[in-house]
Amino acid sequence: MRHLPLAALPLVLIACSAENATGQNAAAATGDRPFKTSIIADFESPWAMTFLPDGRMLVTEKKGEMILFDPNNGTKIPIAGIPAVDSAGQGALMDVVLSPTFAKDRKVYFSFSQAGEGGKGVALATGTFDQASDGTTKLGDVKVIFRATPFVEGNGHYSGRIAFSPDGKYLFFTNGERQKFDPAQDPKATLGKVLRLNLDGTPAKGNPLAAKGFHPAIWSYGHRNLLGIAFDTEGRLWEQEMGPKGGDEVNLIKPGLNYGYPLASNGDHYDGKPIPDHRAGDGFEAPKVWWNPSISPGGLIHYSGDLFPQWKNSLFIGGLSSKSLLRVKLDGENATKADQWDMGARIREVEQGPDGALWLLEDGGSSQGRLLKLTPEAA
User: Fold this and answer.
1) What span, in angstroms and rounded, lies between the C-alpha atoms of 325 and 346?
2) Helix, strand, coil content of the chain in percent (nearest 5)
3) What is the spatial distance between Cα 89 and Cα 87, in angstroms, rounded to a whole number?
4) What is the mean pLDDT of residues 244-269?
5) DSSP code for 105
6) What is the dihedral of CA 193, 302, 1, 31, to 10 degrees?
């Protein structure tokens, strides 16, 4: 789960280290799935989901729709109040996460791509969840609290993932390098970065690179397209990103570190131009695990549930081009590839349900857009 445990809604709302980077500790694809897959619903190019305290879900769709969905009866209610989304290319209504204090303030955080001065970029916004007695639902008082800078031309690598620190005081937000390469190393741009913000969207005090002249929101840099971010139970921040050809990564994010892109990567550019591999002493932080061939990682969660006790302290990753669900086992600051299950469709998002079930969203682009629930075979 990418938000903190929350109290129930009131009744009105119920209706590698360098060695690892070069070692490639590959996990063989496992054909037999050790879980039962239930098809719950179908959406139009869904992108992300999150659970409300009452068990219902918020689901975002690429074109700019947010849906209130009840998995118990299949009811779908469109949520009004969403700003205009520029959904060309990889643009979308992206992540959606509840405020750490949702039970009190009903605040929802979400990200989306928008057009503006200079081109396009990813925006972070908030709104207040409001459902009337007749069931109509909206986000009220919607405001954009942060925009990536600079806006640039193009329709790719927005990123836009959201995670709250375990203490609920800070918001971590990913900005992709927008297929422009160099901004990932530019200290003034937020592109190609993990950002640490206050809950109101302002840069958090004490960010590690501000005194060196970097944009004050930057927490780490040298990233490409960051499509997953999650804290483990010990407070470590994990991130996965689509690297170039043969260079998808899982990283342990530490403050102030440079993760190398586009100066170092275990993949190469899609035009065949080589990129120097990560190597000890190069000044860049190497990924904990990486993939060649690429898996095209989508969503990311850290699993902490009881339904699959054997998988506690694992990361789960949705695979797009690989059409798979992947598990990465964690051991302190180390990570190891564990399982890769063929799902037969592009998996955009992974979430942990209130009972510990795994929930997946298919991409809905070159595959269906189904919502799947994974439970143990014996369940």
Assistant:
1) 9
2) 5, 45, 50
3) 6
4) 97
5) H
6) 110
Structure tokens at 344: 């037969």
Instruction: Give bridge partners of residue 6 from the DSSP assignment.
Output: none
| Residue 31 pLDDT exceeds 80 | no
- What is the tens place of the pLDDT at every residue in 134-149? 999 999 999 999 999 9
Contact 148, 180 (CB under 8 A): no
Distance from first CA to last CA of the chain, Å, rounded?
21
170 CB-side CA count, 13 A: 19
The predicted model scores a pTM of 0.92
CA distance 215 to 199: 18
| 157 labelled catalytic | yes
Smallest CA-to-CA distance from 159 within 81, 240, 46, 65 is with 240
Adjacent-strand bridge partners of 139: 129
CA distances from 294 to 63, 119, 277 (A): 26, 29, 15
Distance separating alpha carbons of residues 113 and 316, to the nearest angstrom: 25
Mean pLDDT of 220-240: 98
Q: Which of 3, 157, 269, 278 is catalytic?
A: 157
pLDDT in tens, 275-299: 999 999 999 999 999 999 999 999 9
The predicted-structure confidence for 300-331, as pLDDT tens digits, reads as follows: 999 999 999 999 999 999 999 999 999 999 99
| Position 32 confidence tier, pLDDT thresholds 50, 70, 90 | confident
Count helices and strands (H / E) in the chain.
Answer: 2, 25
Residue type, 275: I
**Distances, alpha carbon 359 to alpha carbons 42, 265, 280, 303, 350, in Å:** 13, 31, 38, 12, 6
Query: What pLDDT is attached to residue 5?
Result: 40
Residue type, 314: S
Using pLDDT thresholds of 50, 70 and 90, give the confidence band for residue 1. very low
What is the secondary structure of 277-296 as a DSSP string? PP-TTSSSPPPSEEESS---
**Among the listed residues 323, 280, 328, the one whose alpha carbon sits nearest the alpha carbon of residue 301:** 328
CB 175 within 8 A of CB 190: yes
